[in-house]
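Quick review question:
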């Protein structure tokens, strides 16, 4: 058993690294690059880039420490059979889920835009969870994978803070997992939603979880590795 103390809000935490996984949410071209789903919704996708470099550092440290790393991708089957019509039918028809775009059909599995950005690309052995919704536990085998490996704590990174990160953290919290959201490894198209999304997680004594940052986490992982 290898413990690490993590500086976090609302309280510092001691976690068992053997029971800890890094979960990287939806760092896909469709959300981070022009011409994808995020841009189709009218967002300035450049706002999400701030999370890439801290995520890379955490990913490298997690791999070095031998932590389980899980990646998620939001998207749908090419025939849209797993996409709720109400999700598809929103917005400009030319820019909807399944419409053709510069990175292939928007938010469709197997298309270039659906894939994870090269900087954070999974390596062999890192599970990739394809999810049809915002939460990573909804209609996926994520919970089964975590339970089979005895995971108790999730270090959560990714985009967007108030949508897929928050939804996943709430789902995880209700299932009894301890979530530590790594603030600078997350980002939103709306800075104020990023801040509020993190505030909501750590409020009321950590009602959904804890919030830390990449630097203290990297320091803790380095200490634990000695
Ligand atoms: C959104 C996500 N923003 N990954 N998805 O629709 O947060």
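Suggested answer, residue by residue:
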């Amino acid at each position: 058993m290898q413990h690490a103390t993590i500086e976090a809000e609302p309280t510092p935490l001691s976690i068992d690294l053997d029971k800890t996984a890094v979960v990287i949410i939806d760092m896909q071209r469709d959300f981070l690059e022009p011409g994808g789903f995020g841009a189709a919704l009218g967002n300035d996708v450049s706002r999400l880039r701030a999370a890439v470099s801290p995520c890379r550092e955490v990913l490298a440290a997690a791999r070095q420490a031998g932590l389980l790393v899980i990646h998620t991708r939001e998207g749908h089957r090419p025939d849209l059979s797993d996409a709720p019509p109400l999700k598809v039918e929103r917005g400009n028809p030319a820019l909807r889920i399944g419409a053709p775009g510069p990175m292939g059909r928007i938010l469709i599995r197997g298309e270039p835009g659906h894939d994870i950005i090269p900087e954070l690309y999974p390596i062999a052995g890192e599970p990739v969870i394809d999810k049809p919704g915002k939460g990573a536990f909804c209609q996926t085998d994520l919970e089964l994978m975590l339970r089979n490996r005895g995971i108790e704590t999730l270090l959560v990174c990714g985009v967007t803070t108030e949508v897929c990160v928050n939804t996943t953290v709430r789902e995880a919290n209700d299932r009894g997992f301890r979530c530590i959201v790594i603030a600078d490894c997350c980002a939103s198209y709306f800075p104020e939603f990023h801040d509020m999304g993190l505030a909501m997680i750590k409020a009321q004594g950590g009602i959904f979880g804890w919030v830390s940052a990449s630097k203290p986490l990297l320091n803790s992982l380095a200490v634990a590795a000695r």
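Why it works: Residues 26, 31, 74, 134, 159-160, 163-164 surround dicarbonimidic diamide (CB under 6 Å). The longest strand covers residues 178-187.
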